[in-house]
């Protein structure tokens, strides 16, 4: 699904650069109160789990900072068709899930006791993972880390336990980026319905306030006009909008994604962008003529596979027409609304 894996091998950025991307995916604000699904009642109290998740979120900032400073000792860039894939991060993630899911939380909540053999990671790679986690504050005692502690914030282990259960039992492939703890996806654990505006706020929080405000205006405008929004994670974040009013069946997130008209998109390769899958441009060509020249050229160029359409390297063209979410978008705000309005079914 990701535009990064479309056939041509490229050199990966250093893992320190990917860590900066990861850091932006960590929730900026986690509420202090929300109700958890009943399945977590056997892990700990809601309060302890919530506090543990906040502690784990704080750990992730430290984890990313350590990757930025020391990550090149553990993962060297390589030439690959999927530059967003770092096996070291996959192994660390699997190790954390194993620690949280299979180990038993002590009555005090201050340690995890291993109850099953290690995940399917080679012994040398396991040692690398544990060494890096030790740099980040974990302590492993006994043979094959029989006891796991995190002295700086013992409650973190409760959060790790709950998040690991969620990753195994609630995450969905290509929806939550299955088994990825690095996003600290506490919302999948909530008993309440998720507020999509809160999700969008989390995704766009690194952007300047004026651009965020414009994004929220777009969200409200098109939800009010009847569009359905959903989030999907692969090697990028997709916050998509689709018109589903005429659907005769309940739609999965993948279904909504396949029907998307436009989306907010965040990836290491393209940064923050809007992608629009414009299909009616010939019906409002006279409107496009009034847009700024930059936007006119983007729309006229169209979208699709870059290699097939223009014999160019992959630039994510199959995702839609890409407009960066940067300062340049501020002067085009009204034009983008008019453009998206003309792509709505009601514009037929």
One letter per element, helices H and strands E, the order comes to EHHEHEEHEEHHHEEHEEHHHEH
Strand content: 5-15%
**Structure classification:** alpha+beta
Number of domains: 2
Number of helices: 12
Helix proportion range: 25-40%
The total count of strands amounts to 11
- Weakly predicted, low-confidence segments: 1-5
Could you report the average pLDDT, rounded to the nearest whole number? 88
For the record, give the distance between the C-alpha atoms at the N and C termini, rounded to a whole number. Answer: 30 Å
- Oligomerization status of the protein chains: single chain
Main sheet record = 5 strands, antiparallel
Cα-atom radius of gyration: 22 Å
From the spread of the alpha carbons, the general shape counts as globular
**Could you give the order of strands across the largest sheet?**
7-8-9-10-11
Give a quick set of tags describing it.
four-stranded antiparallel β-sheet, five-stranded antiparallel β-sheet
Give a verbal description of the structure.
The chain has 348 residues and is of the alpha+beta class. The chain has 2 domains: 10-178, no CATH class; 196-347, no CATH class. The chain is 40% helix and 13% strand. It has 12 helices and 11 strands. The protein has helices at 15-25, 46-70, 87-102, 123-135, 156-169, 196-204, 209-224, 253-258, 285-288, 293-301, 306-310, 333-343; strands spanning 10-11, 79-80, 104-105, 112-113, 139-141, 147-149, 228-233, 237-242, 260-267, 271-276, 321-324. It is globular.
């Amino acid at each position: 699904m990701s535009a990064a894996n479309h056939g041509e091998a490229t050199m990966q950025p250093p893992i320190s650069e990917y860590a900066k991307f990861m850091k932006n995916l960590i929730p900026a604000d986690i509420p202090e109160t929300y109700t958890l699904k009943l399945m977590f009642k056997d892990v700990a109290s809601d309060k302890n789990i919530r506090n543990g998740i906040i502690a784990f979120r704080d750990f992730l900032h430290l984890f990313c900072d350590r990757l930025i400073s020391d990550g090149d000792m553990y993962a060297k860039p390589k030439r690959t068709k999927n530059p967003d894939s770092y096996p070291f991060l996959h192994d660390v993630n699997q190790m954390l899930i194993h620690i949280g899911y299979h180990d038993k939380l002590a009555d005090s909540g201050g340690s995890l006791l291993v109850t099953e053999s290690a995940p399917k990671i080679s012994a040398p790679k396991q040692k690398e993972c544990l060494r890096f986690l030790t740099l980040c504050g974990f302590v492993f005692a006994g043979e094959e880390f029989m006891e796991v502690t995190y002295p700086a914030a013992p409650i973190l282990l409760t959060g790790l336990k709950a998040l690991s259960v969620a990753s195994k039992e609630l995450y969905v492939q290509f929806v939550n980026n299955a088994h990825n703890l690095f996003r600290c996806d506490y919302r999948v654990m909530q008993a309440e319905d998720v507020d999509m505006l809160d999700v969008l706020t989390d995704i766009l929080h690194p952007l300047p306030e004026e651009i965020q405000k414009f994004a929220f205006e777009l969200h409200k405008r098109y939800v009010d006009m009847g569009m359905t929004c959903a989030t999907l994670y692969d090697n990028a974040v997709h916050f998509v909008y689709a018109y589903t009013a005429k659907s005769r069946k309940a739609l999965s997130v993948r279904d909504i994604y396949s029907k998307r008209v436009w989306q907010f998109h965040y990836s290491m390769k393209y940064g923050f962008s809007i992608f629009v899958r414009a299909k009616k441009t010939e019906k409002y060509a006279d409107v496009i003529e009034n847009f700024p020249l930059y936007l006119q050229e983007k729309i006229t160029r169209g979208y699709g596979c870059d290699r097939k359409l223009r014999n160019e390297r992959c630039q994510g063209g199959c995702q839609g027409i890409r407009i960066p979410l940067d300062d340049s978008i501020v002067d085009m705000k009204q034009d983008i609304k008019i453009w998206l309005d003309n792509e709505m079914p009601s514009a037929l």
